[in-house]
């Protein structure tokens, strides 16, 4: 296999990763248990390695671009995103309780959700 062929495969893998994670991020806007932000951040990381066109689209998107720029330059998260994330995690945890999940799962998710919420609320605001 030539070097250019392997580079093409690597680029295709990054492009596929960017496309799939961006799609999952978009689906996460409508499904409360699927997180949007991590998928969009992965897509923003993978896109320039695989698809300059997708990279430009993500960064120039009117809703996604400014959020990425705020995160990239200041580590900032908008106040609305902080509130929505904390509320969604709380509702998800309550849902787990109502479904009768094992106490170990409830404890583990509580620790994770509290850690994520603590990280979010300590970020500067965009």
Roughly how many Å apart are the termini? 47 Å
Structural class: mainly alpha
| Uncertain ranges | none
Largest sheet: none
Helix content: over 70%
Count of individual helical segments: 6
DSSP strand tally: 0
Global mean pLDDT: 88
Outline: globular
Question: Could you walk me through the main structural features you see in this protein, from its secondary elements to its overall organization?
Answer:
The chain is mostly helical and 126 residues long. It has 6 helices and no strands. α1 packs antiparallel against α2 (37-50) and α2 crosses α3 (52-60). The longest helix is centred in the first third of the chain and has 26 residues, at 3-28. It starts with a helix and ends in a 5-residue tail after the last helix. The model has no long low-confidence stretch (mean pLDDT 88).
Concise account of the structure shown:
The chain has 126 residues and is mainly α. It is built from six helices and no strands.
């Amino acid at each position: 296999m030539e070097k250019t062929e392997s580079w093409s495969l690597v680029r295709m893998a990054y492009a596929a990763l960017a496309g799939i994670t961006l799609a999952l991020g978009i689906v996460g806007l409508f499904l409360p248990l699927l997180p949007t932000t991590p998928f969009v951040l992965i897509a923003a990381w993978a896109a320039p390695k695989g698809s300059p066109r997708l990279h430009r689209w993500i960064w120039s998107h009117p809703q996604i671009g400014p959020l990425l720029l705020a995160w990239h330059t200041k580590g900032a998260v908008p106040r609305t995103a902080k509130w929505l994330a904390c509320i969604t995690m709380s509702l998800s945890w309550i849902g787990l309780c109502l479904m009768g999940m094992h106490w170990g799962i409830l404890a583990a998710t509580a620790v994770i959700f509290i850690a994520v919420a603590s990280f979010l609320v300590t970020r500067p605001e965009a």
